[in-house]
Amino acid sequence: GQVRRLTRQEIQIFVGVIAGAGVETTGRLFGWMGKVLAEHPDQRRELVADPTAIPRAVEELLRYEPPGPHVARYVTEDVEYHGRTVPAGSALLLMLASANHDERRFPDPERFDIHRDVGQQVTFGHGTHFCLGAALARLEGRIALEEVLRRWPDWEVDLDAARRAPTSTVRGWDSMPAVIG
Ligand code: HEM
Predict the structure, then answer these.
(1) Number of domains making up the chain
(2) What is the mean pLDDT of residues 18-28?
(3) Which of 22, 87, 90, 116 is the 20 to 30 Å CA partner of 74?
(4) 20 contact partners, CB below 8 Å, separation of at least 6
């Protein structure tokens, strides 16, 4: 309930959080765009022909290949899920990527489909800590895809020569050579 200025250390930590949370994640999204749309050239051609479908395609990309596959929680009190008690003091890893592929929520979840009405997915988390940058990330995704497709409508990736990023918090690619048509 008191107003005070942030300390230098708090600002440094926050800038660090934004840099990590905001740059690494969207960078990984761009990598997945390159891979998934190379694997689905028919859908990529549809986006070239009709760029108004790009926001929906970005939503499906976020569902299909979430840049952050999980979030963690420390359990402060006993809590019951699915008839089982998770005891206080536990560390809980919530698999967002798995929820995004839950067949009870998404019919035929392993199919990438830019026409899917994605609705609620959990790539940006859920509840109190829902991603502060979700709107910015979606905007960046749309603009990146619009600009790439405008310049290079056709590409193939060399997956054998691609390198995965060895991080534990986000999943994606460090490099992925592409042949541009
Ligand atoms: C595709 C891109 C992104 C993905 C997949 C993503 C994912 C997430 C997820 C899953 C959380 C929840 C963490 C939790 O519940 O423990 C989160 C929180 C957060 N994100 Fe993002 N994010 C993205 C982009 C961004 C951007 C662009 C920014 C800012 C420039 C940002 C800033 C934050 C911040 C500050 C939080 C913490 C919110 C809180 O704890 O209240 N994120 N993000």
Answers:
(1) 1
(2) 90
(3) 22
(4) 169
Mean pLDDT of the chain: 95
Please give the single-letter amino acid code of residue 23. V
> Per the domain annotation, does 150 fall within a domain?
yes
Q: Output the six-digit token pair for 31.
A: 């990598």
CATH of the domain at 56: 1.10.630.10
Give ∠ CA 163-73-85 in degrees, rounded to 5: 125
* Residue 2 included in any domain: no
As a whole number of angstroms, the distance between CA 91 and CA 146 comes to 40
**According to DSSP H, which parts of 65-113 are helical?**
96-99
Residue closest via CA to ligand 1's atom 3 equals: 25
Is 48 part of any domain?
A: yes
Task: Decide whether any atom of ligand 1 lies within 6 Å of the 150 Cβ.
Answer: no
Structural domain boundaries enclosing 102:
8-180
| Ligand 1 atom with least separation from CA of 136 | 27
